[in-house]
């Protein structure tokens, strides 16, 4: 008989099922903070739906009795082509959320990217596996430089410069819910809290201490509202390629650019010494109407011409989605929301379970495809399904 504390495993048979468990676990404003997108959420939906138009052409007679899911990135061999991407305030979903997810990634043999907006300080994230650090170009360039220096001193393996967050997206779910950090629940939210007692019990001692750990200055009170205001004021819509070149001179390890959708931007990035690209629209949380990441991937790959690895995030909800992205030419994929759903349900074991779901689904798909290694996945195993345009009467 499965212990009550482990019964979630029986239900968590897929990423979609894990999302449903998280929805039932979290207060609605907290769930929507992770789950929602910008404005009408067209890009959010398109990220997932775009995979439907890509069909697989398996070659089972190629034989794949065993499958190698490992990939090399920047001199590190990862056992899984799925990395955990940066998601702010993971500590809101589980106490010590960033540390729990980083341990899960290390146990799975993959990399973890810490968000600039983490609850923990970047120095406090446990080592064990490859650790990447996200940062922005801020109006206060000295703060960007300080974060990069702190990441270097803490032994981070790579920097991820995110470029699509120069203005805060219009996330209307959060506005409708009256969501703020730390959460202040309305009477209607509290009335619905009877089914969220597990989250409330574990988080109640943590809520007063939740802050943006990387933005607290020495000797300063960690007032969250003030820190949130500072973060918003630091974002710089005027950032330019000169700033990318400046950061490239500062940081001597791998430097990735995240938020690339336009092929010309990809080409310029490589000319500026960027070591890797992440094709991403910020999970549909910023510019609603932006292209789905998987749709933008082929043109970015063509522009780069194999000079640097290209990764992709956004809408990957099955191992077969990862297989499609890799067959198109991506080196690896990043996930955001799915690891937050696993974290919300069971902390570190929940994130481990999410990563193992991807591992088992990728392995099964490769076996059915006749692909013994990731290098065997290529465009020859794909075709685009034609989308018929409905006839209209004139």
Automatic annotation (TrEMBL):
EC numbers, comma separated: 1.1.2.3, 1.1.99.31
Keyword Oxidoreductase found: yes
Entries under Pfam families matching the protein: FMN_dh
Organism the protein comes from: Labrys wisconsinensis
Family: Belongs to the FMN-dependent alpha-hydroxy acid dehydrogenase family.
Cofactor(s) essential for the protein: FMN
Protein name as annotated: L-lactate dehydrogenase (Cytochrome)/(S)-mandelate dehydrogenase
Start and end residues of each FMN hydroxy acid dehydrogenase domain: 7-387
Keywords of this entry: Flavoprotein, FMN, Oxidoreductase
Broadest EC class assigned to this enzyme: oxidoreductase
Listed Gene3D superfamilies: Aldolase class I
UniProt-listed InterPro entries: Aldolase_TIM, Alpha-hydoxy_acid_DH_FMN, FMN-dep_DH, FMN_HAD, FMN_hydac_DH_AS
């Amino acid at each position: 008989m499965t212990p009550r504390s482990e019964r979630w495993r029986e239900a968590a048979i897929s990423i979609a099922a894990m999302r449903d468990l998280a929805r039932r676990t979290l207060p609605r404003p907290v769930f929507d903070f992770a789950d929602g997108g910008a404005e009408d959420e067209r890009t959010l939906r398109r990220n997932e739906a775009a995979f439907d138009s890509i069909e697989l052409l398996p070659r089972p007679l190629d034989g794949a009795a065993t499958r190698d899911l490992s990939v090399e990135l920047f001199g590190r061999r990862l056992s899984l082509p799925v990395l955990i991407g940066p998601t702010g305030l993971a500590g809101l979903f589980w106490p010590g959320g960033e540390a729990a997810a980083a341990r899960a990634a290390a146990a799975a043999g993959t990399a973890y990217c810490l968000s600039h907006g983490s609850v923990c300080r970047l120095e406090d994230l446990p080592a064990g596996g490859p650790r990447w650090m996200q940062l922005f170009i801020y109006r206060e360039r000295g703060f960007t430089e300080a974060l990069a220096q702190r990441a270097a001193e803490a032994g981070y393996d790579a920097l991820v410069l995110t470029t699509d967050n120069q203005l805060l997206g219009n996330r209307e779910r959060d506005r409708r819910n009256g969501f703020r950090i730390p959460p202040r629940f309305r009477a209607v939210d509290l009335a619905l809290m009877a089914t969220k007692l597990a989250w409330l019990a574990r988080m109640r001692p943590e809520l007063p201490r939740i802050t943006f750990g990387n933005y607290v200055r020495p000797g300063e009170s960690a007032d969250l509202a003030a820190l949130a205001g500072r973060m918003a004021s630091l974002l710089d819509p005027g950032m330019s390629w000169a700033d990318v070149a400046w950061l490239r001179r500062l940081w001597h390890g791998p430097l990735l650019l995240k938020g690339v959708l336009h092929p010309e931007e990809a080409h310029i990035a490589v000319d500026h010494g960027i070591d890797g690209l992440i094709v991403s629209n910020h999970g549909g949380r910023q510019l609603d109407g932006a292209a789905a990441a998987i749709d933008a991937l082929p043109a970015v790959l063509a522009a780069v011409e194999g000079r640097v690895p290209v990764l992709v995030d956004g809408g990957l909800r099955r191992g077969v989605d990862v297989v499609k992205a890799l067959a198109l030419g991506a080196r690896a994929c990043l996930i955001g929301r799915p690891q937050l759903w696993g974290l919300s349900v069971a902390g570190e074991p929940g994130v481990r379970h999410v990563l193992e779901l991807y591992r088992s689904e990728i392995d099964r798909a490769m076996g059915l495809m006749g692909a013994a290694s990731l290098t065997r996945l290529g465009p020859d195993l794909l075709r685009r399904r034609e989308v018929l345009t409905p006839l209209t009467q004139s």
